[in-house]
């Protein structure tokens, strides 16, 4: 509707009534159980602005919509606008389609400072996403302080260099890389996110992707385990020895995780385990049961479906496609859809010859906007098992916050609308125009170095750094 076409994600309904109200303005808030969770009604007239919601999240999203309506100036940290600001009069009735609207940020492969994580959290909140999945451990680094096991960060939090691009040769950059979050840093991130309606879901990845942990504590692995934090990308053959002593070690690690992160959901990995045995499956199931015994829910990648009979509270992250998610939902397990082919933000954005480090599947803005989180053929009685969807920012080739910005935006803008707005009726041309006209100026105001729609800027390219497109 006129005056409301700039909303992103799209509202369930919007009616413009003409006129405008000066901004900033006092906002009335009314509680009503008639409004769905996280939903809101926003009424703007020349005399008042009123938000009606049933919870704090609804109020928060209504205020975010107001910020969108004011215009890009409202996204700056200081007022640079000359003259009065106004907001158009009308009514918006809005609610999210899915309860899980997430984004994974991999801080293990390339560490992001606390300040950078807080900034990323702000950007998720601006897009009405509500889950930040922090991938805290991997072969290339351990980022979580565990006071009982100090070598995890003393040794496991840094590596002597990194593979440049994606290739099969021995070339490395020779630049040491590292970093980790102290306990109070993580508590601060959690609290900051909560103030913005975002739950931080931590991940400690086991029994594969553990080279950093094995470098610190070799006794956790097989005799021939590597003895340095990995400098390559990809899948390392090192895996945990699924013994009782290893299980006790990681129960203690997760005790620290439980003490720091109040999230109901705790991620335990389970993906890409070369040479996995039945004992490794049992190891994962016992860790899941341990978390469930402490009132939490384990989230594992879809390989966990092959581990054995999973405890009912387990959530499956369907990343290798949609089939595993459909299978898990049909089996009575809750699912978060995050298929590599559709929502991996580290994958290449175009066939443009200057695309930096082009890896993986081709996933354009239009591809993200066309994604449907409910897998085809999913039985009607299993659809409620799909909690929502999650975009993934794996960071092997994202070695700075500028590179994260480039890979993430504006594709995350399209994803945010997919997981918020009703199914069907998506008009790609209309979305692209709305993105170009209204939302990219907001990203400019926020200082986001996104990928331009027509290709990378010269300083966003990486000449001579090899990729591996699929």
Give the C-alpha Rg.
Answer: 23 Å
In the CATH hierarchy, the architecture of the largest domain is Alpha-Beta Barrel
Average pLDDT: 95
Low-confidence stretches: none
Looking at CATH, the homologous superfamily of the largest domain is Glycosidases
Structural class: alpha/beta
- Please give the alpha-carbon distance between the first and last residues: 41 Å
Please indicate the count of domains.
2
User: Quick one: biggest sheet?
Assistant: 8 strands, parallel, barrel
User: Mind telling me the CATH class of the largest domain?
Assistant: Alpha Beta
Number of strands: 19
Q: How large is the count of helical segments?
A: 13
Relative helix content: 25-40%
Q: Looking across the biggest beta sheet, what order are the strands in? A: 6-7-12-13-14-15-16-18
Organism: Amycolatopsis minnesotensis
Enzyme class: hydrolase
Pfam families: Glyco_hydro_20, Glyco_hydro_20b
Keywords: Glycosidase, Hydrolase
